[in-house]
Description:
Radius of gyration: 19 Å
Order of helices and strands: HEHEHEHEHHHE
CATH superfamily: Vaccinia Virus protein VP39
Structural class: alpha/beta
CATH topology: Rossmann fold
Amino acid sequence: MYGEAVAAARAAGSELGRGVAASFVQADASQPLPFSDASFDAVICVDAINHLADRSSVLADWARLLAPGGRVVFTDPLVLTGPVGSDEIAVRTSIGFGLFMPAGENERLISRAGLTVLAVEDTTEEKARVAQRRYEARAEHEQELRTIEGDETYDGRQRFFRTAARLAREHRLSRLAFVAAKPR
C-alpha cells in the first residue's frame, strides 16, 4: 500500500518535469531515518508523532537530520489538558497506537533533543471542528460506508470522531503545534 503511494508520488513528480527537487522514500519513522546528518533545513510532521512510541528518540533523530538553524514543525493531537477517562482513551486509540502526553512534556523533550522551542500554538478548536465535520460527512453517507466498511468499522469510526470532537471542544485533549530550531 505505502509502496504504491511512493510510486504515485514519484510519477507525479516526474510529470512536473525539471526544476522540481523532490524525492520520495518509504521509511519507518519509529527508527532512525535513512538520511545523512544535517541534510534537511526543515522537518514537518502533522498529526503523526502521536503514533510513535519513543518520542524522545524521534525528536533526537529529527535534530540529527536538521542543519544548523533548521526548523522542526509538528502537531500533537494527544496532549492531555484535562481529565480523560479510560473509556475515552480506548475510543481515541481504537484506530491504532496513540501516545498521550501531559502538557509541557513535548517542550521538555524538544529541549532534551538539543532543539530550542520557538513557538507553541493551541489548534484544539480547529481539531474539534474538523472531527465534528468528519463525523457529520460520514453520517451523510452512512449506508454507502456501512456497505464498504461493515457495521462494526463504521460504528467504531463514528464513535472515534464523536469522541475526538467532544474531548477537543471540552479542552480535555488538546492539539498543539510546535516550532523548534536547531542552534546555529
